[in-house]
Amino acid sequence: MPTTKVAIVGTARQRSDWLFLMKPRREWQFVRKLGVAIALTLAVLQLAQGAQQAHADGLGYDGLPPQELCGLCHGLNGISATAKFPQLAGQKAIYIEKQLRDFLNRHRVNDGGQMASIVTEIKPEQFAVAAKHFQGQPVPKPDLEALSELSKQDLAFARTLIATGRSADGILACVSCHGAEAPKPAYIPHLRSQHKRYLVKQLQDFKSGNRMNDRTKTMPMIAKKLSDREIEILAAYYAGQPRRGD
Hints:
Elements: H1 12-22, H2 26-57, H3 66-74, H4 93-104, H5 114-118, H6 127-135, H7 144-148, H8 152-164, H9 196-208, H10 218-223, H11 228-239
C-alpha cells in the first residue's frame, strides 16, 4: 500500500507542534503501563499486609478453649455430623483423655494423621478439661435406622456374642468390658449410639493392625476372629442401642 505523504506548511514552531501530534504515543503508552504496574504492585502489597494483619489479630487455636477446638469436628455438644468423627457426647472422660494422649504419643495412628496433628494444638494439661466437657453433654440418640437393617438372625447373633461371647473361638462376651451402665476397666469406651461406620472402621483397624493402642491386646485378638459381616452386624447393633452417659 503506497504511503501518503503530508506536506506540512507554516512556521517552524507550527511544524514542530504538528509532528508531535502526529508521531506515535509510545512514550505515553509506556508511562501508562508503568503506572498500572505500580498500582497493581501496591494493591498486592496492601492485600498481603491486610491478610498478615488479620492473621495476627485472630485468636488462632491458642485463644480457644480445648473443647471448642475439638468441637470443630466433633461438635461442641459432642454430636458429630459424620461418622469420620466419633460421637463424644456422654463418653467416658478417662477414655477421651487416653485417646488424646495416645494420638499425641503416636500410640494411635489409624486416622491418617489428622488427630496426631490437631492434638498438638492443645496443651496436655487441658486434655482433661475437654474430656470432662464432652462427658457432661447429653448422650446422642441411637441410630434406629442402622438397627432396622438387621435381620432376626443378625439380632440374635449380636445379642448372643455381646452377652456370652463365642467360647469356641476364645471370644469373650462384649458386655464383660463394654457394659451398658459403666464399661470397665475405666478406660473402656461406651459403644452404644456411636456411628455405625466409625465402629466398623475401628474393628477393622484392630483386625488389620492399623490400630494398636489397646494395651491388653484384647481387641485385636477378638477382631481377628470376626468376619467382615459379623463386624457390620455388631456395629449396627451397638449404633442402635441407647447410651447411658456417666
